[in-house]
Amino acid sequence: MNVLVVAAHPDDEVLGCGATIAHHAETGDAVEILILGTGALSRDGAGPGETERLAGQAAEAARILGARRARVLDLPDNRFDGVDLLEIVRRVEVEIQGLRPEIVYTHHAGDLNVDHRRTFQAVLTACRPQASGGVRKILSFEVPSSTEWQSPTSGHGFRPNVFVDVGRTLARKEAALAAYVDEVRPFPHPRSPEAVRALGIWRGASAGFPAAEAFELVRELL
Q: Which DSSP symbol is given to 42?
């Protein structure tokens, strides 16, 4: 199968479905990653060459996971809401037309981060059903330090109903995350290696696996 992962920022793809990417790659599926935004440029201390550095780290993470490539675009970090939705949709559509994926993974609609929510909207629009066929399944992933930070009273909580057994590939997710040197945080931050592993084990325990990544099924065409 052809599989497309659409993420807002460099490292979101690893945090959200890195072990599942490795699982697809191990079974012979062709996985490509589209990262829409530049990443950490809105933070204090981001200097010249930051975009190129993050793109290099994304490429290394993709190599570790077995993905064919990772493309990093130039949408402004934490400012996707200032970009016309149609422009974002068109960028996703170009990737879909080129790869023709059967499965697309992307952010959860209720994430606290505005770029994540905007990415979900663009993906859902770009993957609208077509009479000529197209994307058969859309799954949304959770990103530690965004998905769980949304208020439980918002009505947009993450409710996983698909679990992928990643007992064999969780270590590759951890190695890929380590490629993002400046994005990893010390424990007990949700993006710490310890917390990422703990989440994988907990999601696995929820489904009877040694480790799992959890997803919310957005749409499936049978």
A: G
What is the DSSP secondary-structure string of 89-150?
A: HHHHHHHHHHH--SEEEEE-TT-SSHHHHHHHHHHHHHT---TT----EEEEE--TTTTTTS
Residues 6+ away with beta carbon under 8 Å from 48: none
Residue found under tokens 């696996």: 209
What tokens appear for 148 in the block?
């769980």
Domains within the chain, CATH numbers bracketed: 2-220 (3.40.50.10320)
Instruction: Work out the percent of the chain whose per-residue pLDDT is above 90.
Output: 84
Q: What is each CA distance from 176 to 10, 11, 93, 124, 180, in whole angstroms?
A: 11, 9, 27, 27, 7
- The 10s digit of each residue's pLDDT in 39-60 is 765 554 555 578 889 999 999 9
Contacts of 188 (CB under 8 A, 6+ apart): 194, 195
100-126 CB burial, b ≥16 within 10 A, e <16: ebbbbbbbbbbbbbebbbbbbbbbbeb
Hey, what amino acid is at 74?
D
Looking at residue 113, its amino acid is: N
**How confident is the model over 185-197, as pLDDT tens digits?**
999 999 999 999 9
The answer to whether residues 142 and 158 touch, using CB atoms and an 8 Å cutoff, is yes
Query: Could you report the per-residue pLDDT of 149-171, keeping only the tens digit for each?
Result: 988 888 789 999 999 999 999 99
How far apart CA 222 and CA 11 sit, in angstroms, is: 31
Helix (H) or strand (E) holding 159, with range, is: none
